[in-house]
Amino acid sequence: MPMTMPDVDRVIALIQSISGDRAKAVWWLSQPLATFGGKTALQLKRRRPHRRRDQLR
Question: Bridge-partner residues for 39, per DSSP?
Fold first, then answer.
């Protein structure tokens, strides 16, 4: 199940609250990270819509 725009906006707002900058939040969410097996944070969020307690929730 793909994420909707409100879902993406919510995730960006969460990361923005940590980084203090929307551009940094979008950049981080779109970067493949070794920690995530070469996937982006948004790719991981998209893969696990059935999880109740998601790290990015």
Answer: 33
> Are residues 28 and 15 in contact, defined by beta-carbon separation less than 8 angstroms?
yes
* Reported pTM: 0.64
Determine contact, residues 30/39, Cβ cutoff 8 Å. no
pLDDT tens digits for the chain (57 residues)? Answer: 566 778 888 889 999 999 999 999 999 999 999 999 999 988 887 655 555 555 555
Place of tokens 């109740």: 52
Count of C-beta atoms within a 10 Å radius of residue 33: 12
| The token pair that represents 2 in the structure block | 């793909």
Q: Which position has the token pair 């409100």?
A: 6
Strand partners, 33: 39
